[in-house]
């Protein structure tokens, strides 16, 4: 029985390493949308780099061709 966890770990490790890693965040998010019906992206408030990233994400042609709907949660007390 002790050999099973090692075998599962080795198999999982092989599966993870066989998938190529995205070159950047936009590519990774587009890939996630192609594999999953819903992708959630967190936000750090008042960080200019985060806002710049979201701008580059929604302006990306591949993102626009892949994603149909965007839901933005915001509100004040």
Summarize the structure in words.
The protein is mostly helical and 77 residues long. The protein has one domain. Helix content is 58%, strand content 0%. The protein has helices at residues 3-18, 25-35, 48-59, 61-66. The longest helix has 16 residues, at 3-18. The chain is globular and about 40 Å long.
The stretches of 5 or more residues where confidence is low (pLDDT under 50) are 3-15
Structural class computed from helices and strand pairing = mainly alpha
Number of strands: 0
Mean pLDDT: 78
Oligomer: single chain
Major sheet description:
none
Succession of helices and strands: HHHH
Q: Residue share in helices?
A: 55-70%
What distance lies between the first and last C-alpha atoms, to the nearest angstrom? 55 Å
Principal-axis shape equals: globular
Task: Please summarize what this structure is.
This protein has 77 residues and is mostly helical.
Descriptive labels:
77 residues; mainly alpha; 0% strand; globular
Topology (SSEs and partners):
Elements: H1 3-18, H2 25-35, H3 48-59, H4 61-66
